[in-house]
Amino acid sequence: MTAYRAPTRDMWFVLEELVPWLEINALPGFEEATPDLVRAALKEAAALAEEVIAPTNVAGDQEGAHLDRDGSGVRVPDGFRTAFEHFRAGGWTGLGANPDFGGQGLPELLAVAVSELWQSANLAWSNCSELSHGAARAIEAHASDDLKATYLPHLVDGSWTGTMNLTEPQAGSDLALIRCSAIPEGDHHVVSGQKIFITYGDHDMADNIVHLVLARLPDAPPGVRGISLFLVPKVLVEADGSLGPPNRVKAVSIEHKLGIHGSPTCVMQYDRAVGYLVGEAHSGLACMFTMMNRARIGVGLQGLAVAERAYQHALQYAQERVQGSLPGDDDPVTIIHHPDVRRMLMEMKAQIEAMRAVGYIGASYLDRAARGEDGARSRARADLMTPIIKGWITETGQQIASLALQVFGGTGFVEETGAAQHYRDARITTIYEGTTGIQASDLVGRKILRDGGAAIRELIAEMRDIERDVDARLPHQSASYRAGVDRLEQGVDWMLANAGNDFPAAGAGAVNLLMLCGIVAGAHAMTRSALVAAAHLAAGDGEESFFAGKIVTARFYNALILPRAGAHLAAIRAGSNAVMGLTERQFEPVPLP
After folding, report:
1. Is residue 433 annotated as a catalytic residue, yes or no?
2. Is residue 566 part of a domain?
3. In the 8-state DSSP scheme, what is residue 194?
């Protein structure tokens, strides 16, 4: 497999020019997060990703995690633990964490950006730190001061890791069906039940694992209103902070999965395990969403990260594979000279740059909401962008991983080339933290219909703000860009006019609206990139190749990717008749009479 090269120049371009970083640097408490510090952090993170984490990717896929035969615990692949030790030693586990608990207090956006590097280097390995970060956020937001003091310093320094325990055999996306119980006993609760699909539910990279578990108290009302959140450690903690005996929780099996083989996905059994209530009783789902919403942005970046790794692999192959010749010349050429291979590489490159820009810009609103003067507006924008980042980026990342296989041709289907791993690993990203359908329902129901379209109309207005500049400085992109924004506005208008009283119409069109939002948001970011690049070229600022490439890539996106918005708009307007038209029996195969 090709070596991973961190795309730090493009990362810094988005952070510096499109966010822009100086606005984050100016937020209260982020004065030390200067451009020089961020550039240095990106370089250090890139070295760790390229030299330490990336070499574990293929071996981790081949070896996988395994449960010891005696049931004593889960063992991660060789190299994972050493990579995690380097990760901890560099202070990366506490990059954006609260200094009160040992964190560095740097912007969340920087933590999001460097997470792309860990995830590209080894997606399976990176899951552990992503979940720990989310668990720490939930504990800080909702737990008692005693629980914070006991658990957060260890989560922040990476000596302990965290998990999220929602799913049960009978309760997937419908958490109202949760049966796991928590019974008061002295100063704690005893938690009993089974949880499934628990990422890094057990492993041997940390001294303790802090499980956040959704369960029901004896007096819980039915449905999601009766769910509470509990902190259940793998190893009990003594009064002096030292580790005591094991708790009554264990991984009883791990799943054999399509991809991310190095990431243990565990079935966890809680047998009267000691647990501590986090937040108010019966408010567990709201508490857990503190973790889930951040995780949805993180998973969105996973779609970007795997796409970047797959693209780099396909690009190297296209530059080395000699096959065929060009018209009028009998000399064989590498396949990157063939127009259709160029088309595939351009589809990957253009969409990756759009995904990165949308992901980073969207994540910047987390910091703006937490520290800026327009906190409510920024929170609304972060909430709007979260399902788009999670849904559109992961769906597109999956398509890019598939397209990379096509560049390889038949050899891509062979495991030895390594290209298939990206395709297998990418598949989980559209499922993690809620499927694309769930993200789309959230976007339509909670983020568009609930506020009458106010937040998304504000975003569309920002897209309109650059149209005159595009007309003047990028005339070849003007018509396609305007048409894309028009289609987004028309899709939103249709949904607002028709979906409020028509549940099937909302459900049938939701994914298409989500994809429409993502594609047009990508066009907005790419067009802004081209405007910035044109200004740098006009000023003679250097890096001519980089900036000229930005203009060409944006032109490709607006000419060949953005028109897909029209298909999504047509599907939205089609309503629910075609989707819901068959009876249940008509889905079944029919034998010849």
Report:
1. yes
2. yes
3. E
